[in-house]
Amino acid sequence: MLPSYQRSIQCVGTLLVMLSLGACGGLPKGGERPPSTAMKNNGGTALAAAVRPRVAAHPGQSGLHTLLDGREALAARLALADAAQRSLDVQYFIWNKDMAGKVLLEHLFRAADRGVRVRLLLDDLGTMPSDATLLAIDSHPNIEVRMFNPVALRSPRLLGMVADFGRINKRMHNKSFTADGQVAIVGGRNIGDEYFEAHAVMNFADLDVVVIGPVVKEVSDEFDLYWNNQSAIPIAALARQNTTPEQFAAQRAALIAYHETAADSAYAQSLRDSELPGNSGIETFPTTGGGPRS
Questions:
Q1: Which residues span the domain enclosing 170?
Q2: Domain CATH number, residue 110
Q3: Which of 151, 92, 81 minimizes the C-alpha distance to 121?
Q4: CA distance 280 to 259
């Protein structure tokens, strides 16, 4: 008969093997990941009209504006979300459920309410919102959420990570925000208060650039490469749950309420005072939103 400690080790080993097999076999198949690409023929959008003379003045070249200040970096993202008329392709390693994450998410919702197609690609380990929240976001008819290289065992996720560590260790650190295929923001900032000088204790020194011209297509092509990769799994296929209209309405109402409260802060005023050309900050706050997908 095996000593007790050996039996314990054997039981733990068996459990890990079972979890590993479950994690490897639990991800959705490719058929649940319909391909899509960046929208074409965006020449009639307001952003295209704004960009066109600058690009025409420098044929074959790309332009950039550095975002050294964290407040300006968030204001730029909000401004692009508000200006978009056809598409927003958004890709991040970290998306926190703090002020920056919630306010930017509400602006994505506002864009989707206008009919803008929003593709949101997030790294599964760097994303803080729960599956239920992500499903509610995805349930908007104009928003699709995909998770990069997700943990197959959603609960408890820690066990799923341990059991499938070899695969889970491959993460997506890309960060891009592209509006109408005309303007993109790329750089080192994830979505969280500490990246935009909004954290009460700790803030990161980081850098982004706003780009126009031919380089934007390269950013879009990179996004499509990751979006259509076999490791990018739709949250709806991954979580295998449904969001009811009541759940969607509750999530959206809470987000709108938070957004309205945030508008009264000194930080929000600093965004409205941003010198970034065309910045719309967080000056307007809708009280209604779109309905969930069936």
A1: 61-267
A2: 3.30.870.10
A3: 92
A4: 15
